[in-house]
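Priority: medium. Attachment 1 of 2:
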């Protein structure tokens, strides 16, 4: 019997055998195909644990708002600033459907990261579990700040 081990390709696991057949499985399972080949699913992460997933939000040169980022099942927890940054606060737009984006407020206050600097990691204290789609803004809704070059910010989510 030949053994095949699944590799992580996001969640859930996708198992490909040498013939190109694919199955979607969860961790901790051992399966056998019709020929008796054993398929063992391995999870590189602790059972019941969580792990980081990185996304990129790019603000184009001369613009202040990134394109939409689909966080999937990840919960946004931090932003890693690029090496270059035209001085401005960070604010966010969110969406439930990836079509209608609204400015993110906490009560009556626009949620902002005040004075972020280049090449720093910023922890976000807001509970992001309700938001799947996000855009990052340089500046505030009332005073957006165009970036002097294309800026790629790393959004760190937790699954």
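Attachment 2 of 2:
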């Amino acid at each position: 019997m030949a053994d095949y081990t699944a590799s992580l390709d996001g969640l859930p696991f996708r198992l490909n055998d040498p013939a190109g057949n694919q199955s979607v499985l969860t961790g901790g399972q051992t399966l056998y195909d019709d020929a008796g080949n054993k398929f063992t699913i391995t999870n590189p992460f602790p059972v019941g644990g969580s792990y980081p997933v990185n996304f990129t939000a790019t603000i184009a040169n001369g613009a202040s708002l990134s394109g939409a980022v689909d966080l999937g099942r990840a919960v946004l927890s931090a932003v890693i600033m690029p090496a270059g940054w035209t001085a401005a606060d960070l604010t966010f737009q969110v969406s439930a459907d990836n079509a209608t984006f609204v400015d993110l407020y906490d009560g009556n206050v626009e949620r902002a990261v005040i004075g972020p600097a280049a090449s720093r990691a910023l922890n976000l204290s807001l509970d992001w579990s309700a938001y799947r789609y996000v855009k990052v803004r340089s500046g505030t809704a009332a005073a957006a700040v165009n970036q002097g070059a294309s800026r790629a910010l790393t959004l760190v989510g937790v699954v």
